[in-house]
Design a protein that fits this description.
Ubiquitin-like (UB roll); 3 domains; 6-stranded mixed sheet; Nucleotidyltransferase, domain 5; alpha/beta; homodimer; 524 residues; 17 helices; 33% helix
C-alpha cells in the first residue's frame, strides 16, 4: 500500500445527511373536498384550486387536468392528493391522485458531466438520496471534450443527435433507478447541475457562441422547463430546474460547488478549483466572489498521457516510490491487472518522482532518463511496460501552470495575498479522487493546513439535490450567479506572463509551499 | 310603420367608445439591446428577460423561444419587439419580432352564444373595435338548445364533435376578419364571454353535470389557456381568457352583463334580465348581488311558436294593431316578404292584441277566436296566413310567468320592494331587440320610467372586450363572480307558487304597472 493514505471528508456526502429546509420544487397535498350539494355547488376544479390557494397563493390548473378532476373526486370519495409544482411565478397543479399518496414523492438530482452522468433518486418527503446510478454521457461517441461536442452540434442534425444522446442516457439511468412496480411517472421534479455547454445541448440550444468571442451563451438561467419538453421519461409536467450559469465557461456545476462549499457565506477567503479539460477557479468570501475559467489542458484526462486512462478497473490509482531503491508500489482500481494510469495515479507518480529526486524542480528527468516504469511488462495486462514519459510530465506542467497562473491573476486582481487564503475546495471529478498530499507536493493544490483542504465530492449533484429540495437554495444559487465577477482569461495578456512563471515544482516561489520545502530539505 | 318606435341607447355600443385603461392581456415592448462585448457577455436570453423584468416583474421565457433569441437579435441589429402575455401569475414572453412592431397589436373579443357567435377584432393599441363578424354556432346541427347539446356531448365522440364545431366557427370568423396580408398569427390575445355550457364545450369538458343535481360545472373560472391548446388559429401562445361563471346556469355572459351595466357599482338597486331558452335574472347594487336562472321556456325562440322564426330577413319584427278596426301593420327584417314572426314581432303582437282587447287580461282570445292573422296569405311568402295562436300565447305566458316569479322570489328574499327598483337592464340577444313599450305592456319588463330601462346590447362581447383590454376589469369580473349569491330555482318550491301567481297581463298585481293601467283605463 502507498504510505500516505489520506481520507479527508468528502463535503458533498457529509452535507447530504444534513437536511435542508424542505420546500421542494413540487409538493403533494392531501385534500378532503366537500361533495357538491344544493347548498354548495361550487365547480370541482374551483374547489380544488380554492383549497390549495388558501395555503399556496396563486395556483394554476392546466386544461389538460380539468376533465380528470370531477371523475377522480367522485371515484375516490372526495379524498385526493394534489401535486403542485413551483413555476417560479406561483404554483401549478400537475397531478391529482385518488386517496392519500403524500408518502410517495420522488425527485431527481442530476449531475451531467461531459464524461459522466449521475442521477440521484431523492425522497422529496425527507430529502434523502434513495439510490443513485451513473453512466458515461452517450454524447461521448460524438467527441470526448466540450469543444468537439460544440463542433458536432454545428453539423447538420448534430444538435439533435447530442440532445437525444444525453436524454437517452438520462432515461436509461432513470429506468434503472425505478425498478417496477415504481413507475417513472412518480418522479415529479428534477434539478440539474452541469456546465453551460451540457445545459445548452440538453435544451437543444446551439452552443456555437460559447466558443466564439465574446463567448456569450444563449442563456445562463433557463428557468423551469417541463419534462415533456425535453423528452425525459418521468411525469410529463414535472418541472426541471437547471442550476444557473455565470457564463460560457462557468456553469451551474461551478455555482453548485460554491453553494455546497458555503464559501459565499464565510468571512475569510476561500479558493475553489475544479480541474478537468477545462479548469474553473473561484476566489472569494461573503462579500465578493471572482472567478475565471479556461482550457486547463487535458493532462489528467484519459487518452492524452502515453498510458493515461479513465478511473476504471485496471487503472493505476495510487503510487509510491521508495527514494532509496526507486522501487514502485501501486494499487489499481478493483485490483484488476494494470491497464494504464488514471489522474490520481499520475499525480502520485509525479509527486513521488519529484520527492525521490528522479525528476528535478523543473520537472525534468535526471541522468538522461526519458521515462519511468510504473508497471513492468510482466505485471501489466497490456504485455508491455506502463511508463510515465517526459512528454506526459510536460503536459501535466501545462495544466498546473494554467491553474497556478489563473489563481495568481485572481488574487492579484482583488489584492489577496497567499497568507490570507483560509480554505481550499477541490471540486469536480478529479477533486474528488486526487491524493491531496501529492497534489500539494507538485503544486497543484496550495500548501495550507490539511484541515483547510476539503474535497467537495460530486458538488454538482449535491447542489442539484439542495435546489431540488429548497426554494431558498434556488434563490441562493441565483444570488451567487449574480454576485460572481468573471475574469475572461482568453482576453488577458497578463495570464500568459503568469503562466511562464509557474513552471517549477511545486512553484517558482518555493516559499509558498513550506511543507513541501521542509520535505525536500529533509530529503537532502 | 308601427306607432311607438323606441330607440333607446344600446349600452354596449355606447361604452365601446369609452376607452378602458389600457392594460391588455398581451403587450408589445420595443427593446434596444446591448450587443455582447468582452465587457458585457450576458447571455442573450437573460438580457431580454432582465430588460423586461425591470418594468414587468417576473417574466418567463419558454424554451421554444430561446433558440430564436440570438438569431433574431443579430439579424435585427439588436432592435426587437417582445410580446409578453399576462399569465395571471406573472408574464411570459410569447413572441419576439425584428424591429419595432408595437403599432401592430391585435386581440379578439368573442361572444359565443348557443345560437350565434360574434368575433370582434380589437386594436390592442387603443382598444377600438376594428371589425366584427358573426355566424351561427356550427354546433346547431347537433341540437338547437343547450340541453340537446349536453345530451349530444354524452354520446361517443359527441364532445369532440361539439368542440370542433365551435372552434371551426371561430376559425372561419377569424379568417374573415383578417384578410391577407394580415396573418391571423398577429392576434395575440383573446377574451370570451359565453354561458357555462358553451365554455365547457369549447374547452372539451363534458358538461353532463351541468344538468344533473346538484348542477355543478367542472369549472367556473378556467384561468388562462393558450390558443394552441384549443386549436384556435391565431398566435399559438396567445392567452385565452374566459369570463368566469357563477354556476351551471349563470355563465360568463351574465357576469359580462353585470360588468357592462355597472349595476355592481351603483348605490340604488338594479334588475338585469336575460331572456332566452334559459333566463337569467340578477338583482343588486354595490353592496350585494343575487341571481337566479332557469328554463324560461322557449317562447321567444324560433321554431316553437306556430310561425316563429329567428330574426332573419322576412321575419315580422314590429307589429301594431288599430284598436278600432283591428287592422294590422307590420314591418319585416330587410323588408323581405314575410316568412314568420321573430321574438320582437311576437312581443309587439301580444301587446297590441291586449291593448286592442282582442285578448283579455288572462291572455285568452275573446269571442271564441283561436288565432289572429298577422300576415294574410296573399302577402305572405309562405302562401298561407301567418297567425298567432292561443297555444303560442300560452307558451309566452309560461316564459313571462317564469321571469316574473323568479324576480319576485329574488326581491322577497332580499327584502326589496318594487318601488325601490331604479334601473332595469335588458341583456342578451332578445334584450337587444325587444320593443320596450310592448315588453312593459305585457309585463315582461317592469313599468319603470323609460330612462331607467337600458338595453345592454351584446354585453357579453363588450365585456369580453373590456377584460381583454384591462387587468382591473378582469379582477372586477372575478370579484362580481365571487360576490353573486345564487338562488337555485330548481330546488325552490316557492318558485312554483309564485309562478301560478303571475299568469295575468301585465301582472296579477296591476298596480305594479301604472303606465299600463293608465293606458287600459284610457282605452276603456
Amino acid at each position: 500500500m502507498p504510505k500516505h493514505v489520506d481520507k479527508p471528508v468528502i463535503l458533498a456526502e457529509k452535507v447530504q445527511k444534513i437536511l435542508v429546509d424542505l420546500e421542494p420544487l413540487t409538493r403533494k397535498i392531501f385534500l378532503t373536498l366537500d361533495p357538491p350539494s344544493p347548498m354548495d355547488n361550487r365547480a370541482d376544479v374551483d374547489q380544488v384550486r380554492q383549497i390549495l390557494e388558501r395555503t399556496y397563493g396563486s395556483v394554476n390548473i392546466p386544461l389538460s387536468l380539468m376533465s380528470k378532476v370531477p371523475i377522480l373526486c367522485r371515484s375516490s370519495d372526495w379524498q385526493v392528493t394534489a401535486t403542485i409544482a413551483d413555476t417560479g411565478q406561483g404554483w401549478k397543479l400537475i397531478d391529482l391522485e385518488p386517496g392519500d399518496t403524500t408518502k410517495e414523492q420522488y425527485g431527481l438530482a442530476i449531475d451531467i458531466g461531459t464524461t459522466t452522468v449521475v442521477v440521484y433518486l431523492i425522497n422529496l418527503c425527507d430529502g434523502t438520496v434513495l439510490r443513485h446510478a451513473a453512466d458515461y454521457n452517450a454524447q461521448i461517441v460524438h467527441g470526448e471534450d466540450i469543444l468537439s461536442r460544440i463542433r458536432h452540434a454545428a453539423e447538420p442534425g448534430g444538435l439533435l443527435q447530442l440532445q437525444k444522446a444525453v436524454v437517452d442516457t438520462l432515461n436509461n439511468l432513470i429506468k434503472r433507478l425505478c425498478p417496477s412496480p415504481m413507475g417513472t411517472d412518480k418522479i415529479t421534479a428534477v434539478a440539474i447541475g452541469a456546465n453551460t455547454t451540457m445545459i445548452h445541448l440538453l435544451l437543444g440550444l446551439n452552443p456555437a457562441s460559447i466558443c466564439r468571442a465574446p463567448y456569450t451563451p444563449i442563456v445562463n438561467n433557463p428557468g423551469l422547463i417541463s419534462a415533456k419538453e425535453l423528452g425525459i421519461d418521468i411525469h410529463p409536467l414535472a418541472p426541471i430546474y437547471c442550476l444557473p450559469s455565470i457564463g460560457s465557461y462557468l456553469g451551474g456545476d461551478v455555482i453548485g460547488g460554491i453553494l455546497v462549499s458555503d464559501m459565499h457565506k464565510q468571512s475569510d477567503v476561500s479558493l475553489l478549483v475544479d480541474i478537468g479539460t477545462n479548469g474553473e477557479i473561484v476566489l472569494g468570501n461573503e462579500d465578493w466572489l471572482v472567478a475565471c475559467a479556461g482550457a486547463a489542458g487535458p493532462a489528467l484526462e484519459g487518452g492524452v498521457t502515453a498510458f493515461g486512462m479513465r478511473a476504471e478497473p485496471g487503472a493505476v490509482d495510487r503510487v509510491s516510490i521508495d527514494p532509496a531503491s526507486g522501487q514502485v508500489k501501486y494499487t489499481t482500481i478493483e485490483n484488476a491487472p494494470a491497464r494504464g494510469i488514471c489522474g490520481s495515479g499520475l499525480v502520485d507518480t509525479l509527486a513521488e518522482l519529484f520527492l525521490s529526486g528522479i525528476i528535478d524542480r523543473s520537472a525534468h528527468f535526471q541522468n538522461g532518463r526519458e521515462d519511468y516504469v510504473i508497471v513492468p511488462a510482466q505485471a501489466s495486462a497490456l504485455g508491455k511496460d506502463i511508463v510515465v514519459t517526459q512528454i506526459d510530465i510536460n503536459n501535466f506542467m501545462a495544466t498546473k501552470g494554467a491553474v497556478n497562473s489563473a489563481t495568481d491573476l485572481l488574487m492579484e486582481n482583488v489584492g489577496v495575498a497567499w497568507q490570507e487564503l483560509n480554505h481550499f475546495y477541490a471540486a469536480g471529478a478529479f477533486g474528488q479522487y486526487l491524493p491531496i498530499e501529492s497534489a500539494i507536493t507538485i503544486g497543484l493544490y496550495p500548501d495550507l493546513p490539511r484541515s483547510a483542504i476539503v474535497r467537495l465530492g460530486n458538488s454538482s449533484g449535491e447542489a442539484a439535490r439542495q435546489v431540488l429540495l429548497s426554494r431558498s437554495k434556488r434563490l441562493e444559487a441565483e444570488e451567487i450567479a449574480a454576485k460572481v465577477t468573471y475574469f475572461e482569461l482568453n482576453a488577458n495578456t497578463a495570464f500568459m506572463e503568469k503562466f511562464s512563471g509557474s513552471k517549477f515544482l511545486p512553484h517558482t516561489d518555493l516559499d509558498r509551499y513550506p511543507s513541501v520545502k521542509r520535505r525536500l530539505q529533509t530529503r537532502v
